[in-house]
Amino acid sequence: EEIKVDVGLDKPVVIDTEQPLKLALFIEIGTNSAVQSTITGVEKMAAKYGFSYDVFDARFDVARQINQMETALFNGYNAWIVVPVEGSQVCDMVTKRAPAENVLVAHATGTACGRSSMEGEDLWSPGTLTYVGGNETPGAFKAIMEKAAADNPGRQKVGILTGPNLHPITVSFDKALDEIKKEYPDFEVVALHRTDYSPPDNQMKTQTMLQANPDLSIMVGAYTNMSKGAVPALEAAGKQGQVKVYEAGGTEWSVEALKSGAIQATTGFYRQTAAEAAAQAILDARAGKKVPRVILNDGHALIPGQEAGKVGLVTRDNVAQYTPESP
Amino acid sequence: MTDSLAIAAQPIATGRRHFVDIALRYGLIIVLVVLVAVSQFLYPRFLDPQNIKNILSQNAPLGIVAVGMTLVMITRGFDLSVGASYAAGATVFASLAVAGWSLWWAGAVTLLIGLVAGLINGTIITRINVNPFVATLGTTSVFSGLALLYSNSSPFVVSDKTFAMIGRGSFLDVPISIWILAAVLVVGELVLARTVYGRSLYAIGGNDEAARLAGLPTAMLRTSTYVICGVCAALGGMIIASRLSIGQADIGTSMALDSIAVVVIGGTSLMGGEGSVWRSAIGLMIVAVLTNLLDSLAVDSNYQLVIKGTIVVAAVALDAFARSRR
Amino acid sequence: MTDSLAIAAQPIATGRRHFVDIALRYGLIIVLVVLVAVSQFLYPRFLDPQNIKNILSQNAPLGIVAVGMTLVMITRGFDLSVGASYAAGATVFASLAVAGWSLWWAGAVTLLIGLVAGLINGTIITRINVNPFVATLGTTSVFSGLALLYSNSSPFVVSDKTFAMIGRGSFLDVPISIWILAAVLVVGELVLARTVYGRSLYAIGGNDEAARLAGLPTAMLRTSTYVICGVCAALGGMIIASRLSIGQADIGTSMALDSIAVVVIGGTSLMGGEGSVWRSAIGLMIVAVLTNLLDSLAVDSNYQLVIKGTIVVAAVALDAFARSRR
Amino acid sequence: MSTLAAQRPPAIRLRGVRKSFGMVEALKPVTLDVEAGKIHALVGQNGAGKSTTLGILAGRIAASGGDIEIGGSRVELGDPRRARAAGVVAIYQELTIVPALSAVANVFLGQTYARRGLLAEAAMRRRFHELTARLGVTISAEAEARSLSVADQQTLEILRALEANARIILFDEPTTALAPPEREALFKVMRDLRAAGHTLIYVSHNLDEVLDISDAISVFRNGRLIETRPRPDWTKSRLVAAMLGEDMGDIYHRRPAARPLGGPPALSVLGCSLPGAIEGIGFSVRAGEVLGIGGLVGSGRSSLLRAVAGLEPQSSGSMEIGGKAVEWPRTPRAARRLGIALVPEDRKHQGLVLGLPAADNVTLPNFGAVAPFGLINNRYMTDRSAVATRAFGFDPRRLAAPVGTLSGGNQQKVLLARWAYERPKILLVDEPTRGIDVGAKSEILNSLRAFADQGLAVIIVSSELEEICALADRVVVLAEGRLVDHIDSNRAELSVHLVLNSAFGVERHHHD
Ligand SMILES: Nc1ncnc2c1ncn2[C@@H]1O[C@H](COP(=O)(O)OP(=O)(O)OP(=O)(O)O)[C@@H](O)[C@H]1O
Ligand SMILES: Nc1ncnc2c1ncn2[C@@H]1O[C@H](COP(=O)(O)OP(=O)(O)OP(=O)(O)O)[C@@H](O)[C@H]1O
Ligand SMILES: [Mg+2]
Ligand SMILES: [Mg+2]
After folding, report:
1. Which ligand is nearest to the CA of D304?
2. Which of the listed residues A132, B290, C246, D252 has the most CB atoms within 10 Å of its CB?
3. CB of C141 within 8 Å of any CB in chain D?
4. How distant is the alpha carbon of residue A316 from its chain centre?
5. Record's superkingdom (chains B, C) (predicted)?
6. By the CB < 8 Å criterion, does C152 face chain B?
7. How many CA atoms lie within 13 A of C5 on its CB side?
8. pLDDT digit of tens for each residue in chain D (512 aa)?
9. Mutate which of D137, D302, D347 to test ligand 2's pocket (most atoms within 8 Å of Cβ)?
10. Are the beta carbons of C302 and A30 separated by less than 8 Å?
11. Does some domain include residue C34?
């Protein structure tokens, strides 16, 4: 029997229900703890519903990810969960070639086709089944920056740790920063450093930043790895507490750092539940159910005060109610 | 008149040399054949024509760059900047297409940029005598900085369908990128093995002083290899841009190491004076087959690292052993 | 009886040689001094003691690895696997601390792992005669795969405060990591310049065949350089783990290229037989000062690439020019 | 005819040409005319500036001053390409072979036959055979140059110069590695070239050959051109006197063993074989004795030494040291432990670390002896190497110079001095006087004898058969990789002739 799934193209994706679900999970880098929780999510769903899946690790190399997708097309995987290394370059693969071969594609965090700085329904790319996430969008980063601005009224000297150019998270982080700079004139960015996401690099950049800007009062990082470098640098310089650290990422490390006061706030990242929701969407679509194009509320436990589908801010006050999904 | 020993020993020696030569060549080819056989055994769709096409077209840019790198390395050179030239090529090609240029002109300008990049490398290395490692490490940084500035750190997305032809189109049911790879390999092999130019490169790499004393324009010849390498890198960048319909300046970071690896696995020494395009082609295929096999079997990426590293070292060890037996 | 020409010329020649030597040394040192002066001019807090401490302690791991790399490269070797050993060192050290080992034992085991990694490299290279480039490219892959498997791709976060001492503690108001760096540099320089072992390395790098014929245990000596390099990389890993209180297996990807760059910028040739630790130290400082300056001025990262590449090439060109003038 | 020649402009005219390397004045202003269509020889001690002169003419070295005219017009050299364009090619003293390329490719280096850029391999191979035939040698065209003996490599260089067919050909010690028959062939070719109107400059330490072939001879001393005279004005002793400023006497006077030889052999070898090179060779040598190994080029002499010194892992045989059976050495280190040391024939590639100072090269086998507590003491090193080198007439003040900047002869002295510093029990020397001037040659031969007198067993291979006859107590002769004769010192007739006869004996046999 055949089920037709509308993915926003002229031609629907046709599913042969005789064929069991064979899922390919494409991740950007397997050595990142956040990405590990994506795998955990899929693993959990596979155990629950009894389907087979394989993990393809691009090791931060987009050409490699595209090759892996081509190989997967050839090997008959009929559904993909994709965390793109870089959205623009996988665009053609996930929105054209995969649906053309009747493959259902779901994004579990990370968008395609240059949509990483968009919000809401625009996060979905026609040709794919659904997008799950919302915590790495400009809105999410803006929320943490607004939190930093709100916590610290008056003139602030801010240091920024972000990722390399063209990296999707960097793109949406940068967009949020641009908006904040316009809306909060007191939020003065005195230094912006592009790092390679590694803690050592961030440690080094933080030291330099502190030296050049002794009156720095706030640091905002795009991910926990930024804080992993920034916090020891602050400690070494004896500036704990004096410089307040805000980040996105919400990992186990962040929870500990919040408790100890090393960082002020983080955003919840829910890659495991996002992966689960993406797998669920694929299962639903294969069962003929209608699937929303964008799933911002992937079903993770909400922090008190958090609205479903909106970014959750984790602070010292509510950290007890937050369960990190990544180590 | 003299050397009667040599005369007597000649036929035997030649016989032995031939046998050794064959074993030498086959050392690496045997590794590849065994690898292919094992792949087919572990993964029955391996030899499916589509899979072969995938492998070849996926590795076309790397293979093309490796040909340029082979020339450079035969003259005892080194080019780390191929990744940057590759990225610059992709970016410029896509940007010109976006700007509405005809593909021919866009391609010509892109290749010209690769040529200029190579000329800069070659000049720094041969005229100012900067070690190729530092020189091309420095130009890598400069070229990618310029490409990022040019692109304003954004991708150029090309909507024009014909743009995708080089990377995705087919001719006689074989992807065009494979045709280009094949052409570059054949021309590269012919140039190295059969032309005066190629012979001169071996001479320079084997003994630069001897080549200079024999009257070869060594600085110019060495510069030319960087130029060719830069053009190859830009061509590789064109293919990847066309394949993805996008050009952006942050790609190709592993291109330098990968292409050098392919060349060296093929048995070309870092010390120059030896190597060949067909050897690099086999090095390329060993890496490509291994990657495809491990991905097709969806082997865990950490185990992939261990397995790939081990097999590559073992393959090269075998080749080295075969050569030392002569 | 012979060469009376030479005899006559000798005293002058020595005088000149000294002068030339000084100019040679100062070629690179002058670059550094100018760079420091410009930095202080553009960024008045540059020479602040805290900034100097930052620069040195940040670059301590790189500097330590560069010392090991210098030894390897003097013997005409190459070690791409330092990044993997560095990451493995950080991971193992942190994991043992998490497991409650005493720091001494954890440190000893970590260094031992670096030693074993180096031994594996050295053995593959000198006994099985695999090209150092491929050999260490392969072991990079294997070592990082193993480190990732060991750590289950997750970081080890150390809460014990004493663990942070190596990376963050101070002695006599100078960070301990700087003391370690200084110790490694001084020992490295002494070993290379003054010991039988060091002199033998130069001989091997200059002409392996001649050294072998003279009865030096060339294979063992070359292996030993990889062992030292592996230990240095593991030590660097310990420092970074201690500084961050975290050990994770995905760091250090740029360590190999960075450390080779530092050594080569210092003027050690890829062709072996020359170079020294103090030269590598200056190479390190040139890179470190440049990075610190550009970051302190918060120069846009794309412009940083262009500026850094240009200055590095210019510095090395100047050094090459100074040397060719002798 | 001579009047006609006199009216032609000189082929080469040097006016105040000089060269300094840093502060070392290698060549003081030289003024020299070389007549066209003649063979002009340059002689002089090691380091006298002969190679420097040729280097300037060939464009390898840029002169520091002076004018050069070639064929009557002023030229700016300083680049080998320009020299070639001016019609000058050179055979260099230090081999300029590309090791990984084939013999043919080496000969046609920089002068390839090609049609539209494509190599004309067949034509080159044909021409290669013509050239080898002309020189009367057999070298496999496809053999990699690095697998060839030094003699064959030298021959390739000569072929390369012949192929260039230039108006002016410079020969810098072309015969050092050649055996008598090849030398004869080369001289014939040189005479032919002269007859065809080419101008030849010939540098050699073999004064007999120089006197035999040249039309004019210039003598260099200490970087200065002392005098130039036509051949008839010279005799050997006048040449020597001009070179040294004193009379040398006969360098080849026989040097007998100091004391009667007896006792067990220091080294005896049985059934030494190396597939493809030598087979079943046995010999023995006593302490205090010099054993010469005679034979033609390619007869396997070097292979034998290399096998005994542990450089040929594929070799086999049995060995006794001091009467005790030991394991056949398969690495140089194993051989060194047995007390065997080798002075290789290819000093540049196998002997010296060119970038290190002379002192380091002398002390290379045992830095430990000049390094109390493992720390190298530069004074000890200089002192000890000064002692070792002095025996060879090497100026100790040059010990700090990188050995690559020394003249060929001085490099050889450094290499030999190494084993005066670190004494082995058995010393194998391959072509010890290659490129050594007459004065130093005598010193080296004396030192080798002194080695023996101090109780070493010395085995010497030399293409200068006179040397072997002068020095050796016994001679074994190899031909085609087998031992064909054994000549004792008490056979009074030990002479070049005898050795040559046995060496050729085998071949004659084959032809009969
Ligand atoms: N590159 C160099 N740097 C410094 N000194 C040099 C260099 N090349 C040659 N010399 C010196 O120049 C002098 C002349 O050397 P040259 O090679 O011309 O001597 P030669 O007459 O050919 O001696 P030989 O008979 O030993 O070959 C020597 O003192 C030598 O050490
Ligand atoms: N390892 C080897 N394998 C095969 N052939 C070899 C090997 N070594 C040497 N030969 C060949 O054996 C022959 C003897 O070489 P060898 O160098 O011992 O001769 P030789 O008498 O010393 O001559 P020369 O005076 O030129 O050094 C040569 O033809 C050489 O090419
Ligand atoms: Mg000379
Ligand atoms: Mg010989």
Report:
1. 2
2. A132
3. no
4. 22
5. Bacteria
6. no
7. 24
8. 444 445 667 888 899 899 988 767 888 999 999 988 899 999 888 778 889 999 999 988 888 888 888 888 888 877 888 888 888 999 887 778 888 899 999 999 888 888 888 888 889 999 999 988 888 888 888 888 888 887 888 889 888 888 888 889 999 988 877 777 778 888 888 898 898 888 999 998 888 888 999 999 999 988 888 889 998 888 887 887 787 765 455 556 666 665 666 677 889 999 999 988 888 999 999 888 899 998 877 788 999 999 999 999 889 999 999 888 899 999 999 999 999 999 998 888 889 998 899 999 999 998 988 888 888 888 888 999 999 888 787 888 889 889 988 888 888 889 999 998 988 999 999 988 877 777 778 888 888 888 888 889 999 998 777 788 888 888 888 888 888 888 876 655 566 667 777 766 644 444 33
9. D302
10. no
11. no
Q: In terms of DSSP H, where are the helices of D80-140? A: 80-85, 103-107, 121-135
Closest residue in chain D to residue C207, using alpha carbons only: D353
| Contacts D92 to B, Cβ<8 Å | 213
Q: Does A320 touch chain B (CB under 8 A)?
A: no
- C-alpha of residue A66 to centroid of ligand 4, in Å: 60
Rounded to whole angstroms, the Cα distance separating B89 from B231 reads 9
Kindly state whether B11 is in contact with chain D, defined as any CB-CB distance less than 8 angstroms. Answer: no
Question: From CA B245, how far away is CA B162, in angstroms rounded?
Answer: 10
Edge-first strand listing for the sheet containing D278-286: D278-286, D265-274, D316-321, D324-326
Domains and CATH numbers, chain D: 1-87+167-248 (3.40.50.300), 100-165 (no CATH), 267-505 (3.40.50.300)
* ipTM score over 0.90, yes or no: no
Contact exists between D and B (3 or more beta carbon pairs < 8 Å) = yes
Measure the CA–CA gap between C89 and C85, rounded to whole angstroms. Answer: 6
Q: Domain with B150 in it: what CATH number?
A: 1.10.3470
Q: What is this structure's pTM?
A: 0.88
Q: How far apart are CA D503 and CA D476, in angstroms?
A: 10
User: Nearest residue on chain D to B12, judged by CA atoms?
Assistant: D276
Ligand 2 neighbours (beta carbon < 6 A): B 5-6; D 148-151, 276-277, 295, 297-303, 345, 463
CB D395 within 8 A of CB D425: no
Q: Is residue B35 part of a domain?
A: no
C-alpha radius of gyration, chain D, whole number: 23
CA-based nearest residue to B106, from B118, B89, B119:
B89
β-strand B246-247 against A130-132: which pairing, if any?
Answer: unpaired
**Domain hosting residue C129, numbered range:** 50-289+303-325
In D75-90, which positions are buried (b, 16+ CB within 10 angstroms) versus exposed (e)?
bebebbbebbebbbbb
At position D194, the amino acid (one-letter code) is R
Torsion over CA of D93, D300, C211 and D420, rounded to 10 degrees?
-80
For chain A, helix, strand, coil in percent to 5 are 40, 20, 40
Q: Could you tell me which of B298, C94, C151, C153 has the C-alpha nearest to residue A38?
A: C153
CB nearest C246 (choices: A164, A199, A204):
A199
| Total number of domains in chain B | 1
Instruction: Specify if B31 maps to a domain.
Output: no
Closest CA to A196 of A226, A233, A173, A218: A226
Residue pair A264/A244 in contact by the 8 Å Cβ criterion? yes
Q: Is B264 on the interface with C (CB under 8 A)?
A: yes
CB pair distance less than 8 Å for C206 and D355: yes
Tell me which residue of D27, D1, D8, D164 sits closest to D83, measured CA to CA: D164
Amino acid at site B232:
C
State how far the Cα of B156 lies from the Cα of B95, in Å rounded to an integer: 6
Residue among C195, C197, C211 whose CB faces D353 most closely: C211
